[in-house]
Amino acid sequence: MSISRPHCKSKRPKSPGCSDCGTAPTLPYITSGMTTVGEGTLELFNAIKLGKTKRWAVFKITKTHEIVEESSGDRKEEYDSFVRRLPGSNCRFAIYDLEFRTASDKRATSKVFFFMWTPENANDLDRVAYTQALVGFREKCPGTFYVQVETKEEVADHLQLECRE
Fold first, then answer.
1. Confidence (pTM)
2. Domain covering 36-158: architecture
3. How confident is the model over 87-97, as pLDDT tens digits?
4. Where are the beta strands (DSSP E) in 10-160?
5. How many whole angstroms from its chain centre is CA 27?
6. Contacts for 124 with CB less than 8 Å, ≥ 6 apart
């Protein structure tokens, strides 16, 4: 078995790292600290959390290593439109503002959830890329409740909703 090493002319199989030239192997967009938050992403987060003009947003990592908006929903849009936007086999970050009334005094309040969507059938490179970008992105989205989910039923459970699909 030969390992592709475009940086090196050696044809011998190598263990991780190249002993001929000392270069570590790289995978697409899997370098710590390489992913950046795209323009408009934090403004969208603030529109959800502070401005209350959006209900939810789904974010993806582009091939240029940037976290950008894939889709978002206005305040009138609810859970069903949000969960339909979660892809079946690709990882994503998602923010959802859940409004509810407290059980004790029926006071209106809300919780902003930060979801790391990692479906069961997502490829491993995608999972690694999102895991490595997670800490940097979450630090820019303070005051959220972090949840990692693999199924739409888990999303509903964390939002304490009945699964409607």
1. 0.77
2. 3-Layer(aba) Sandwich (3.40)
3. 999 999 999 99
4. 36-37, 54-61, 66-74, 92-101, 108-117, 145-149
5. 19
6. none
